[in-house]
Amino acid sequence: MKNKIQEISDEIFSSICGFDEVKESIVLQLFGDLNILLIGDYGITKSKFLEIINGNFKEIKCIENITDEEKKIIEESFK
After folding, report:
1. What is the pLDDT of residues 17-43, one digit of tens each?
2. Which member of 5, 16, 17, 34 has the lowest number of beta carbons within 10 Å of its beta carbon?
3. Helix H or strand E encompassing 75
C-alpha cells in the first residue's frame, strides 16, 4: 500500500521510471523543510527532475500534513 508521499511522487513524476527514493525526496523537499543534492553521471534524469519541478510549481508552499482535499488540489493542478 502506497503512502501519500509515494502517491504524490508518482503523480508528479509519472514520466520517470525508477528513482523512487529521489522522487520521494523531492516531494518531501517541496512540502517540508528538507534540502537535497542530486549527484550523478550524465544522462540519469537530473535535469528532467528540475524541468518537471520548474514547469509544475509556480509557488511552493510548505505543508506538514497533506489532507485528502489538498492532495486532490495538487493532483488537479497536473491535469
Report:
1. 999 999 988 888 887 777 788 888 888
2. 17
3. helix 68-77
Q: Is residue 64 within 8 Å of 34, Cβ to Cβ?
A: no
Q: What is the pTM of this model?
A: 0.62
SS (H, E, C) 6-69: HHHHHHHCCCCCCCHHHHHHHHHHHHCCCCCCCCCCCCCCHHHHHHHHHHHCCCCCCCCCCCHH
**Given this model, what pLDDT does residue 62 score?**
42
Hey, what's the cell of 65?
A: 500534513
Helix (H, G, I), strand (E, B) or coil at 1: coil
Alpha-carbon distance of 66 to 47, in angstroms, equals: 27
CA dihedral 11, 14, 18, 24 (to 10 degrees): -30
Per the structure block, which three cell numbers stand in for 20? 523512487
